[in-house]
Design brief:
11 strands, 3 helices, alpha+beta, about 20% helix, six-stranded antiparallel beta sheet, about 190 residues
Length: about 190
Amino acid sequence: MSDRFFYPFIVLLIGAIIAAALYAGGPLKTPELTPEEIIAQGYIAQGDDLRRLVNAPGTMVRYAVNSDGVVSHAVLSAHQSKENAPPSAGVFVTLGPNYEAAFGGKTLEVTVRAKAGAENPSDEFAMQYFTAGRGDSEEEFFGLTGQYQDYVVIFKTNPPRGEPASDYVGMWPDWDGKKRTMDLQSIRVKVLD
């Protein structure tokens, strides 16, 4: 095969492989819930739903899977200190506009189930609930132990104004950015009022 056919063929083949991989894994779909369903059920990310986590610059996330290939927990770390990193939510999960619309003006209980990582363990992490420009929670610090525990922030959100955007639950796993780790098992948000 001549170069003039070989290279375009290789480019198409690589593109097809990438497209197939993206299609096979595909984004995790979230059913569009009504505000009433969201208020009743709240929000939970655990197991494979933890793959929705996003790591902002300065942070990292990887996944531990069990023998069935299901995510057992996420391993979070930071390779940059919070004060030297660009402003961000750290490692975070996004709650879409339907959640912001339902959670707006409500008192929320945000629970992160976590422990110090198995390797190079972090002894403390910060957690915060972010809204779309309508008032974030205070950043709260929690000491980590070697056993899974629930860490809770209670936060009253502002009522939504205009078109809802997204809310975020963010964690900074190692304030000093020394690549210390925390293991995250779940994130839950429920309405208290």
